[in-house]
Specification:
160 residues, mainly alpha, 2 domains, 84% helix, globular
Length: 160
């Protein structure tokens, strides 16, 4: 967490410097745009962390271990792929939830499948993809990547 903060802080300082060199008047506009995004994301962040915390206390770890743990095998990887595809939102929403499931006992393979399913199959992005790139393209992409989360989960399970 600390390294991510340091990297983002350095990137922000670099962008502040770049904007300043280009035109110091750009900084207030950049800060205003940042505040607008922050203000819009705060409710999502609060709900994501609330959900992640509630997963840890409301869902018995035995249930997660049974369905998503080491013993679940391919069933857990398939379920992780589907659950990952169903999680909507960006990484700021998804990763607290995924981390809570992993910490509650999901296997490495299942968690890899979950993350890969979220990244590659995310149902929340499909309407945008169909609108901007067309339904044919969307179907081609989904057809070509639908097995990747399962393969990634199986490979992670074998290697780690």
């Amino acid at each position: 967490m600390v390294s991510a903060f340091i990297i983002l802080f350095a990137m922000a300082l670099a962008m502040i410097g770049a904007a300043w060199r280009k035109d110091p008047k750009l900084l207030p506009r950049g800060f205003a745009a940042s505040w607008k995004m922050f203000y819009g994301l705060v409710p999502l962040l609060i709900l994501a962390f609330l959900l992640a915390g509630l997963i840890q206390v409301a869902i018995p770890p035995e249930l997660i271990k049974t369905w998503l743990g080491e013993e679940s095998g391919i069933r857990g990887i398939l379920l992780g792929t589907v659950v990952g595809a169903l999680i909507t939102g960006g990484p700021y929403v998804s990763f607290p939830i995924i981390a809570a499931v992993f910490q509650a006992g999901a296997s490495t393979g299942t968690t890899v499948a979950l993350i890969t399913g979220w990244a590659m199959l995310g149902l929340g992005q499909l309407p945008f993809e169909a609108t901007f790139l067309g339904p044919r393209f969307m179907l081609i992409r989904l057809t070509t990547v639908c097995v990747v989360p399962i393969l990634a989960g199986c490979l992670a399970g074998l290697l780690f």
